[in-house]
Design goal:
Number of helices: 6
Helix content: over 70%
Shape: elongated
């Protein structure tokens, strides 16, 4: 995030330098419009930097949001398929409740874990939570004859 801030400040500084050079070349003092030209230069610089940021950062935000949220639809589709048509609504409700409960509890759990250890400890606890949830998922069915005998 620091790199983005530094890049933003350098771009803004470059535009402001150009507007000052332009104002000096126009000899704004003789026409007594120095304040108006300075204001126009600042507003123009702000609009140029804002447009640049929108062109670069808006697609990044959209792509990041899609990437972060795409798993949700796939997981809920599989959850509804496993539950069947008669219990799909209940399964989706419980799944959604568990997701939002974990999203609520995770930020509350990180500061105490950091006070006890460091970030590797936080990631280790998160990995243990993921491993703890692994038995909930059903095992894949095998397609060979031995697997068919076990299923029936």
């Amino acid at each position: 995030m620091e790199c983005v801030a530094v890049a933003y400040l350098r771009i803004q500084h470059g535009f402001s330098t150009l507007s000052r050079v332009h104002a000096r070349l126009q000899c704004a003092d003789r026409a007594a419009v120095r304040r108006a030209r300075a204001r126009d230069g600042i507003v123009g610089t702000h609009h140029a930097v804002t447009a640049f940021a929108a062109l670069i950062f808006a697609p990044m935000v959209v792509l990041g949001g899609v990437s972060a949220s795409a798993w949700h639809g796939v997981a809920f589709t599989e959850l509804a398929t496993l539950a069947g048509t008669s219990r799909a609504g209940t399964a989706l409700e419980i799944g959604n409740t568990c997701v939002f409960l974990s999203l609520f509890l995770t930020p509350l759990a990180i500061p105490p874990l950091l006070s006890l250890g460091s970030w590797p400890m936080v990631w280790a606890v998160a990995s243990l939570c993921a491993l703890n949830a692994l038995p909930i998922f059903p095992r894949a069915l095998r397609n060979d004859k031995a697997g068919a005998a076990l299923i029936s």
